[in-house]
Amino acid sequence: MSERIRFRTPWLDQTEPAWARPNGAPNAVSPLPEPGVPPAAQGAFAPRPQRKRPMWCTGAFVLFGAFTLMQLALAASGDSEAAAGFIAGLTVLAITYYAARALARRDANPQIQPIIMGGLCLKLIGTYVRYKVSIHLYKTGDFVNYDLWGRKIANGLRHGHLVQPDGRLAGTNFIRVATGYLYVFSPARMMSGFVIYGFLSFVGLLFFWRAYRVAISAKHDATYLQWLVLLPSLLYWPSAIGKDAFMVLCAGVAAYGAAHLLKDHSAKGLLGVSAGVGGMLMVRPHFALAVSGGLALAFVLRRQRGAFFRTIVSLIFVFAIAFLAIQSAQTFFGISAFNQTSVEKQLQDTSSQTSEGGSQYTPVVVNSPVKFPLGVGTVIYRPLPYEAHTSQTMVTAVEDLVLVIMTFRFLPRILRVIRRSRNLPYILYCIGALLVFVIVFSGFSNFGILARQRAVIQPLFLVFLALPRDVDELFPAEPTFSGPFVPPPRQPNPQ
Prior knowledge:
This protein has one domain (55-140, 189-472). Helix content is 65%, strand content 0%. It is built from 19 helices and no strands. Helix 2 packs across helix 4 and helix 10 (243-264) packs parallel to helix 19 (447-465). It is globular, with a radius of gyration of 26 Å. The chain starts with 38 loop residues before the first helix and ends in a 30-residue tail after the last helix.
């Protein structure tokens, strides 16, 4: 027989599941190679399958396994905080597992699930480190007050009594009440509170990732996701009971809404921006200024493509939230008018108020365009290793040095994207939000406070480090003409 006989092997001929194949890939089995013919000449081999689990995820799972055994040993020895943390951690792991599996199937990318789960494992470890450092090194902080009020409010709610702190339901009081309601559905222990707030900040990072996928690239979003879940500052700082974790969640929701609003003016965008900015106004309204500034810059400078009425409605919405942010910031900072003099005075006052402690430095207050480049270097990239005097500051300094190196390495592609950012308005949103953030926080003169505040807006900066090598694929192809335009021949008049 001239034809080669191939026996049926059903257990080897299974096709790849639909959710694990690229979009549009056929459901077929690659043919067997012909004997004696070089593989390159056959062209019949399927491409090498993509690794489903990055190597660092395995290390994260192993490390988390050892961490879980330690927590179980502490809980068995009678440590109630460890037991509460273990219960809360197990709950958020289960929730995240099903959510990550659904997102991986929706995106047709099997890498997503291990990246999210590995990132959450590292986040829980970072939360435990944050808890231990806060309890044993600092021994006090805002988290103690939030925990006490949370237990009081939760206990009242369980007995049918509504306990409310005095004053407006904003700022510190808002976090007190939020902690109380969270304690109703979880163990009312400080460790479980750290886990829940750390999980909320992790959800905020996932919203940043989805915003990147919607507005930048659905092909290279896994790179950005890994930046988010592996950066030490995002693992550590927004992982305590307090405003930082809640602000990361609000900023992520606002970024996701901004991505949809800039892309298709959808109701999802309006809802996302409203929810994110609303949460910011309740806790730290000056962050809402950064969001509104980024949206305003994006809508003003982006290249318009139809939908004129929707654009006008979106601009009215942006100016409305900017007005609310300015009014709330005036109340928050206690200033009577929002102008250059009052802002400059507030920056100087902030510099003097944050200069206490062991991590103070001389700030570069951005009160003129000349100081802006130094302000960017200070707010985004400091401290550097030679400025670190504590272990925490040293870790932050090493991270900042890596960010400086990566920025210079990717500078050509960053500049190319910025030059064409009118066609990619989410880049304009990131630039505008970062500019406002630099101006507002240039007066801070304590590296520890700056690192905590910077974690809220840092995911927008990481967008520029997660750009693909070929940035041209981010922009829609424009029609080109191979030669001069030749009009069609005139048809003769039948009359």
